[in-house]
Specification:
By secondary structure, the protein is mainly alpha-helical. Helix content is 70%, strand content 0%. It contains 16 helices and no strands. Helix 6 packs across helix 8 and helix 12 packs antiparallel against helix 13. The longest helix has 47 residues.
């Protein structure tokens, strides 16, 4: 994990094994705790979502999928979230456009507001996932608890364990955490890679198992599997689909600072997020219910209905979802982008298969997810993992490993979907 792991005298003998074994206990505790917090937040958000999108419209005798209801709920969501960010202590953390999945621990006073704004956005249909805010909450709590109850655990190590446990819980498997952390560990010095990954993988495994017990997450969509050895036609078509998805998302990346600057010309976080809610409501009314929420359930519905939709309709849904991601991430809603990127990739793949039926659906969808996640998240291993797990077929991995090569050449020198933070000022 941290600097201690880099000391050769610690890890080159039996004392190193004992140190790693001792780190397993806090890793297990932190991993389970991170998963329980994620499950709790998701549960509250789902209950509120049912109230807003099922109970209330049913009691009022209205169609929850109608354009005016979608517009009204998202507009109200923007107003409420904006008020919370504006008035709550700590303003629900820094501008989410300026921070990545893993960032410095937040002060404890910020966490209740951040969690509350996250729940409001998830329930209200905002096109963001829980990954960034829930990672921030778990990281801050782990660092705070370690400083008081596990003083031998450095704060940097506690933060890494919390991040690993949260990523493992989010994806229901420690593999995702291993892939993300491998990219991070490869950029740091000190000790063998697996010594640095030992405790984070324990935390990720504990988080994944805990989430599976309570929530049983499932990412795979219903699509025919990939049969036979990789064919040249599949590599070519998959590369084209991946490039289209990547280029589409790069347009969003370049538009991101422009849209962000427009919203943040408004005087307060309330005004920015409320305006964002209005725009998201209009987009939701235009694109329909499939363009709402983080997109995991919706992309399953999209693939189930894709054959009955026109290519124009699929393009509209994909474009609206991409625009909703840019707006939601720019105006100040708290949430993550990885799951939304996966939906966009599925949309691009669905369009490709609709236009060229000869492209196997599993190739089109997996490569679309690969290109979209690679650009939005900028984690290559995670993009490969998402491409394979979304279609539920690891036989597609050899194709994805070849397709990602030109995609990475396209992406490697492009800016990330982040804004350079300005000096902090107190909102009016």
């Amino acid at each position: 994990m941290g600097a201690e792991v880099g000391d050769s005298e610690v890890l080159d003998d039996a004392s190193g094994a004992r140190w790693l074994a001792r780190s397993a206990l806090p890793a297990l505790v932190i991993g389970i705790g991170c998963a329980l917090i994620l499950v709790a937040v998701n549960t509250v958000a789902e209950r509120l979502r049912d109230l807003l999108w099922t109970t209330l419209p049913a009691s009022a005798g209205v169609d929850s999928l109608s354009g005016w209801w979608i517009f009204a709920i998202l507009t109200c969501t923007g107003i409420i979230a904006g008020l919370l960010v504006w008035k709550l202590p700590g303003h629900a953390g820094p501008d989410p456009a300026t921070i990545d999945l893993l960032s410095a621990p937040l002060p404890l006073r910020v966490l209740p507001g951040l969690a509350l704004v996250l729940v409001v956005g998830m329930a209200g249909g905002v096109s963001l996932g829980p990954e960034n805010p829930i990672t921030a909450v778990n990281t801050a709590l782990a660092v705070w608890l370690a400083a008081r109850w596990w003083t031998r655990l450095p704060s940097a190590d506690a933060a890494m364990l919390a991040a690993a446990g949260t990523v493992g819980a989010l994806f229901g498997t420690p593999i995702a955490a291993a892939l993300v952390l491998t990219e991070i560990a490869a950029t740091t010095a000190g000790g063998p890679l697996w010594n640095r990954l030992f405790a984070p993988l324990v935390a990720a495994g504990a988080g994944a198992m805990t989430t599976t017990v309570f929530a049983q997450p499932a990412f795979a969509i219903d699509v025919p599997g990939y049969h036979g050895p990789p064919a040249l036609a599949d590599l070519v078509s998959g590369t084209v689909v991946g490039l289209v998805a990547a280029l589409l998302c790069l347009l969003a990346v370049y538009a991101f600072p422009l849209v962000h600057s427009v919203f943040h010309r408004l005087r307060t976080p309330f005004a920015a997020i409320a305006a964002g809610g209005v725009v998201l409501g209009a987009l939701g009314a235009l694109g329909g219910h499939l363009t709402l929420f983080k997109g995991l359930d919706e992309m399953k519905e999209l693939t189930a209905q894709a054959d009955s939709m026109s290519a124009t309709r699929l393009v509209l849904i994909t474009a609206v979802k991409l625009a909703a991601l840019v707006v939601a991430a720019s105006c100040g809603f708290r949430g993550g982008r990885i799951f939304v990127a996966a939906f966009i990739g599925v949309g691009v793949g669905s369009v490709a298969h609709q236009l060229v039926p000869g492209i196997p659906p599993v190739v089109a969808l997996a490569c679309g997810v690969l290109g979209a996640v690679l650009v939005i998240a900028r984690y290559g291993w995670l993009a490969l993992f998402m491409g394979a797990v979304i279609v539920g077929d690891y036989q597609i991995v050899p194709v994805l490993c070849l397709v990602i090569a030109p995609l990475w050449l396209l992406v490697m020198n492009r800016p990330p979907m982040l804004i350079r933070p300005r000096p902090a000022t107190n909102p009016v």
